Amino acid sequence: MAMYINTNILLLAFFAITGILFSGNNNNMVVGEDCQADILGLQAQCALYFQKVLPRMNPSQQCCSVIKKANMPCVCHHMTKNDEKILDMKKVIFVAQYCGRPVAPGTKCGSYTVPPPPPTA
User: Fold this and answer.
1) 73-97 residues labelled b (16+ CB within 10 A) or e (exposed)
2) 17 lies in which domain range?
3) Signal: present as a keyword of the record (predicted)?
4) Is 49 within a domain?
5) Is residue 105 one of the residues assigned to a domain?
6) Is residue 47 packed enough to be buried (19+ CB in 10 Å), middle (13-18) or exposed (0-12)?
7) Which of 25, 80, 85, 99 is the least buried, fewest Cβ under 10 Å from its Cβ?
């Protein structure tokens, strides 16, 4: 029974994220074709790792495969306030870095600005 409920929650979250991401940005623009496939891939393989309601966890190999090919600045550019109600932008940045595709410091991902790396000792 718990597995059935967890599966339903994940499916509901997936469809909610899909609807939010394709609802457009603050200017009511539709996601550009330049990263639409990236967003779909991230939704399919990485949505679990971006959700606010779940603890931060290392992404799967399948998620990393999508991240490595994705245009993350484009994806970040299309994040809206509605996306940020469900998705944790810090987790998005963590997953990208974990997968070997860090997002450049200063990049805006929704309203979140990627901070500079911590100073080395």
Assistant:
1) eebbbbbbebbbebbbbebbbbbbe
2) 2-113
3) yes
4) yes
5) yes
6) buried
7) 85
Helices (H) and strands (E) in the chain, counts: 6, 2
DSSP conformation class of 4: H
Whether 120 is in a domain gets the answer: no
Per the structure, the count of domains in the chain is 1
14, amino acid identity: F
pLDDT score at 118: 81
Assigned token pair, 27: 């200017």
pLDDT at position 12 over 80:
no
Predicted TM-score (pTM) of the model is 0.72
Q: How far apart are CA 34 and CA 27, in angstroms?
A: 17
Q: What is the pLDDT of residues 36-70, one digit of tens each?
A: 999 999 999 999 999 999 999 999 999 999 999 99
Classify residue 20: in a domain, yes or no.
yes
